[in-house]
DUF3788 family protein (Bacteroides oleiciplenus YIT 12058), 138 residues
Amino acid sequence: MNALILKDKEVFPTDEVLENALKSSYPAFNKLRDELTATDVRIEWNYYNDGKAWMGKMLFKKKNLGWLQIYDGYCTTSCFFMERHLEAIGGLDITESIKTNFYQQKPSGKLTPMTVNIHTAEDIDDTLKMLDFKKKLK
């Protein structure tokens, strides 16, 4: 797996920093950010010492829906789900390979991560569906 690249604690992920890191996938990130804003999801950037990198927490009101990670040339969005959600996830209208990867993941404690790689604007729809599903969970 590729390494996160926003490693400098002193360099906040501004638009310029993100554009330099994401390169040709920056327009997709920008569209994702616009779509998140339109659905009342905000990105809160924090530097995490355990991963030694900046990550974006995707928040709906006070609920943490998932994480946004920046890699060299693309970004990922990840949500974590409990075992009781596994059956419902099977019915989500998202790319089959994302579901397959999810079901092959090892849980981290009681949670299993679902990750969507975002290279182009076409990849955003799966993230929005994943986040919408997560919003509705109790």
